[in-house]
């Protein structure tokens, strides 16, 4: 055959004018024949092996799986709103009731001289009661969210503990803290919507429940933080938050003692200005309570509240109501 006669001793065939054997040249020009590969360069990786070792991955996620954020709000702004709303409303109710309805807000069962009306008095007259109820309605929602955020936050800190005794103690304290927080929020709602003029016996008992649960919640929170941080706060923000919590708790205890003392003087002895001192202590208690809860801004300075679609893959296993992103 002619093709055999063209192959030389080395199997390469007779060279062409440019020095390339005819069989190799024909193989390069024929698309149906396998093409010869250049010799590999030391240290390099061929494209076929690279594809085998690193298969192509579609970096673009499926459109239906993309995270779609509908709303994102700074958690700090939510805390500021939760604080400013009742505080500003309380100021408006005090000023308007003091100017336009002094006889109604200063009236007591002892008929003694009084200069400072109580919170129940200024929020129990119309139209201030409606303004106060609206503000508390807007206040309760974020408070419930914050309560569950704190529950998840403390639960995450508990999972970092290694001592079983401390874990058990912290877990029990967490249940107490969360329960007292919910009771306090519920009592605040009840004491707002059951005014002293409409049903004084129920209002009085709910107010006592609010005071008791509020002080107990502060004390239990400080105890829980002591268990979670036996060596003290680890960051300046945690240190500031703890110092403010302790200060507001001490102020609440002192003002509560004065509140009880002056209330007894007013109720049983009908001393002049006793109810005014009682009202002043009540305002201090309310301010200290707001200040204690305001430390949320120091505990969560950079977190955001987000409403998003397809966020299931970011959900923590042990999270309830709210969760953080990994």
UniProtKB/TrEMBL annotation:
Q: What domain of life does the UniProt record list for this protein's source?
A: Eukaryota
Q: Is Phosphoprotein given among the entry's keywords?
A: no
Q: Which keywords appear in this protein's UniProt record, sorted alphabetically?
A: Membrane, Transmembrane, Transmembrane helix
Domain CWH43-like N-terminal, residue spans: 75-302
Concerning Pfam families, the annotation shows:
Frag1
Compositional bias annotation for Basic and acidic residues: 51-62
Q: Locations of Pro residues compositional bias?
A: 33-42
Q: Where are the transmembrane segments?
A: 78-100, 130-153, 173-194, 206-225, 246-264
Instruction: Identify the stretch(es) annotated as Disordered.
Output: 1-62
Q: What's the name of the protein?
A: CWH43-like N-terminal domain-containing protein
Q: Which organism is it from?
A: Aedes albopictus
Instruction: Recite the lineage of the species.
Output: Eukaryota, Metazoa, Ecdysozoa, Arthropoda, Hexapoda
